[in-house]
Amino acid sequence: MRSCIQCRQTFGTDSWICPACGFAPELLGGFQCFAPELAQGNSDYDPKHFRTLVALEDNSFWFQARNRIILWSLSRFFPAVRSLLEIGVGTGFVMRELRRSFPQTRMWASDIHIEGLQFAAERVAGSVDLLQMDARQIPFRSEFDVVCLFDVLEHIQDDEGVLKELSCVLKPGGGLLLTVPQHMFLWGPFDEGGFHKRRYGTNELERKVKAAGFDVLVKSSFISFLLPVLYLSRLRSRWKGEYDLHEEQNVHPTVDWVFRILLSTEFRMIQAGLRFPMGGSQLLIARLRDQA
Predict the structure, then answer these.
(1) How far apart are the C-alpha atoms of 279 and 114, rounded to whole Å?
(2) Neighbour-count burial for 255-289, b at 16+ CB within 10 Å, e otherwise
(3) Using 50, 70 and 90 to split pLDDT, how confident is the model at 182?
(4) Fewer CB atoms inside 10 A, N or C side of the chain?
(5) What are the DSSP calls for 137-179, one per residue?
(6) Among 126, 90, 82, which residue's Cα sits nearest to residue 110?
(7) Span 251-290, pLDDT tens digits
(8) CA distance 115 to 165
């Protein structure tokens, strides 16, 4: 069901005009905008990063490793997904692969920034419904089989409020798929430049997800084998007082090959059922708890 963000009336038409109060989202850049005041800039992210990401993602060992674990997670735990929402689609790098892997699924994706949606639209070529919105006020109720946020929740101050909102957006028994940066001892210029509000503690996300009405199916760190390298990189950036994403991703081809082998091995171990307690990132898969 669609939900009016002004009066919270739910309705089942294909129109975004609320039949109760007449509210309709603005149209900016060809996208339905539910939070237009945040569409060009806000304190949660700097849209200048989108152009940097587009240049890096396709050849990055890190982004490719994350995509691999995301696609496996969705296939393994929610193979029958028929409707999916990705919040914080960014440049569409993940959504492009989700679209390819699940061609029969109705897919929606949102971002708070118009600039990100413009890049995403180029990558998904009209095969995904894109809209601009604030994750604290989602214009759906009981609509999706799965909702995904990939390295998004750390940008939002009220992460617990967003998780509660997600529980209202999912159908009964619906799935939640999250990745977040982990361990505050890795905090530094990278997080500050990325407008992060936090890096998650080992059990912090699980606690918040459960409090929002979900049962956790899987929790595991990843980017675990590279944690020592990541820690040294963060120490170096603290010493320099700045962080360069291009520099961290632009490694020697031999080093890149080694990193890919390590992350592939780590992925196969997670597939086999091993759960890592520490790592640069955390994967969490949950299901909406039965309220009966």
Answers:
(1) 32
(2) eeeebeebbeebeebbeeeeebeebbbbbbbbbbe
(3) very high
(4) C
(5) S-SBSS-EEEEEEES-GGG-TTHHHHHHHHHHHEEEEEEEEEE
(6) 90
(7) 789 999 999 999 999 999 999 999 999 999 999 999 999 8
(8) 24
Strands 83-87 and 10-11: unpaired
Of 132, 124, 291, the closest CA to residue 212 belongs to 291
Q: Which residues contact 242 (CB under 8 A, 6 or more apart)?
A: 189
CATH number at residue 202: 3.40.50.150
Q: How far is it, in rounded angstroms, from Cα 193 to Cα 77?
A: 34
Q: Which pTM does this prediction carry?
A: 0.94
Per-residue pLDDT reduced to its tens digit, 186-222: 999 989 988 999 999 999 999 999 999 999 999 999 9
Rounded to 5°, angle at Cα 47 from 187 and 245: 45
Number of domains, the chain: 1
Domain that holds residue 36: 2-288
Report the distance separating Cα 142 and Cα 167, nearest Å.
8
Burial group, residue 63, by CB count within 10 angstroms (0-12, 13-18, 19+): middle
Confidence of residue 118 (pLDDT cuts 50, 70, 90): very high
The whole-angstrom distance between residue 72's C-alpha and the CA centroid of its chain comes to: 15
